[in-house]
TrEMBL record:
Membrane topology value: Multi-pass membrane protein
UniProt KW keywords: Cell membrane, Membrane, Transmembrane, Transmembrane helix
Coiled-coil boundaries: none
Domain Mechanosensitive ion channel MscS span(s) in chain numbering: 118-182
Protein name: Small conductance mechanosensitive ion channel family transporter
Organism (species): Aerococcus christensenii
Amino acid sequence: MQQVKQWFHNYLGTLNLEALFSSFLSKSFQVIFTIILLWLIRQIITRLASLYFHQAQRLTSHGSRQETLESLVKNLIQYIYYFLLTYSILAILGVPVATLLAGAGIASIAVGIGAQGLVTDMVNGMFILLERQIEVGDNVTLNNISGYVEKVGIKTTVIRGYDGTLNFIPNRNIGTVINLSRHPIRTQVDLSYFSDTDLDHFEQIIKAQLHAMSPDQTLTAKPVLMGIVRNSFGQLVYRIKFYCQSGRQDDIQAKYYKALSNALQKAGIHQPESQSAVKTIHFTPSSYSPKDLK
């Protein structure tokens, strides 16, 4: 025990505490200065990128495309910032980073194998962006997850579900992409009727009500009268088809179903309380073929 104390005392005697303290202060200052400098550079570049893409959004009609690219660029800036920060701090502390990177050997192979998923994420993410499969704000379904694209990053794509839940999907796991925002969405209104209903009068009321309603800005085409068809329950209904902007199909369906049902009721035409009350009747298909509302 006495020998250990003696060795420890001799070791402390060989240390230049003043030099160590001076070196500690110097390296601490360098680390703090490097962190602040890189953070400021990151903030400036991020701000410039935001200004550029916001300006581009005002000059182009592809606003969602610019938002997607902005998200990707900011993601790249973040990764580069953390890499430079880590490299700089290790270099200041005297760690031979270049030597470690050059002579990693087996460790490099292990890291390479572990990074295969990251590389796959990046490659798949680039193809998603280049092919414009999805963009920020699109209404999509990815891997049975439906919602709106919140962010497209290098490694992951973020989908905000209809209930507000954020879903982080690795890009390598994205298979079939269902994008509902590129073209108009079709929706329909089915109106039931009793077997003794005058179908000619029934159709006239529907036409008159559709003409009387103010054009809905979310509709991309005029309503189409499909006439009498069988629904998924095998029952006969009068169907009107609508094409509207993505995400507005439920609003359109509710709006027109309510308006048409009220118009029929005011005209003295009553509908069954449930679809099960609809009775099958015989009709001439040629008399009620699909036709555009004119």
